[in-house]
Structures are given as C-alpha cells and as structure tokens.
Amino acid sequence: MTDVLRDGPADAAATIVLAHGAGSGMAHPFLQRMAEGLGAAGFAVVRFEFPYRASGRSMPDRMDVLQATLRDVVAAHAQGPVVLAGKSMGGRVASMLADELQARALVVFGYPFHPPGKPQQLRTAHLADLRTPTLVVQGERDEFGTPDEVAAYTLSPAITLQWLRDGDHSFKPRKASGCTAAQHEATALAMAIDFVRAHVG
Questions:
Q1: Are 2 and 70 in contact (CB under 8 A)?
Q2: Most-buried pick from 103, 133, 158, 182 (CB within 10 A)?
Q3: Could you tell me the CA-to-CA distances from 125 to 96, 135, 147 in Å, in that order?
Q4: Is the pLDDT assigned to residue 1 strictly greater than 70?
Q5: What is the distance between the alpha carbons of residues 198 and 182, in angstroms, rounded to a whole number?
Q6: What does the pLDDT read at residue 105?
Q7: What are the pLDDT digits (tens) for 162-177?
Q8: Measured CA distances, 75 to 45, 60, 62, 71, 181 (Å)
C-alpha cells in the first residue's frame, strides 16, 4: 500500500489527488504549500510517492508504473468527486489518466511540454483530445514550454492556460520583473482553488 499525506477535512465534498514532480517527492515544500492551501479551502488533498521515490531512487519509473500508482491511489484514497493535480511530471501523468478516471477537473503546476533544450520532443499528443476541464499554470520562462512554443501546439479546448509573468519552471521570477516567487505561488493556488470550485461546487 502506498503511503500518503493528507490535508484538509476528511469529510470534504471532493478529493484532490496531488502528484509530485520528477525530482522531488510528496513532502517538497512547494507541494506541501499547495496541499495545505487547497486543504484550507475545504478540499481533501492526498499526496503520495511514486515507487522510485519511495525506494530512494532518483530515476523515475516507467510511465506505465507511474500511471498504475496513480490509479491505485485514487482507488484506495479518494472519496467523492475526484480532482487530479500535479507538479510537472506528476501533472503529465495525471493528464494521461484524467479522462479514464473521470476526474471532475485537472490542475497542472508547470506542464513539461518537452524536455529542456529539446523542443522537438513534444509530450502533447494526448492533450489534443483531453475532455477533462484542465488548468495549466505555467511560468513565462519555463524551459519545458514557453508561451510562444505552446501557442503553436494543438491543445484541447478543455485546457485553460494561465501564465505567470517571468516565472521559471518553479514559478520563480527574476528580481527585475517586480514579482516574487511567493506572489506567483499565491496566484497559482488561488487560480487552482477557483478552478476546482467551479467544477466540483
């Protein structure tokens, strides 16, 4: 059984299953802040570790293993309407299962549209037909997908893109932008809360 971390009320009307990124686990400070914020908004939030992280490895599991893990967590720990969410890789995995698992909504913090420096290696094919209402919050300087790059992709009309000014993949802006990482995180959290509420009530 996969270990989980929980935030928010146990009797919440909806459960958000929040998946971590490739280089961090479920206790990463960013993920913790998002989970606590979503929990404070009244949602039950479940975080978990993919097997490679749970066993102390740094190389992510194969995609089929990642997907099987997310399926198992939803089946074992989600109550009521389910919302899938994730940071980077976790969001990508969630986006591949959102329709299958009949998620009410999907929230991705920094989608990895392509590997850094390899814009030709797109990870977007399944996004063209995605039916689940989806919010992608992306930094304008994200090396996994910039506004100009993403504008050229064929994406489902179910996907809403929100850009954070001068933010990188971690939403951190340069000082000259006049923005801060904390401000961008707060904005991303507020967007996520509003989006989930709009789709689960």
A1: no
A2: 103
A3: 10, 17, 18
A4: no
A5: 24
A6: 98
A7: 999 999 999 999 999 9
A8: 14, 22, 20, 6, 34
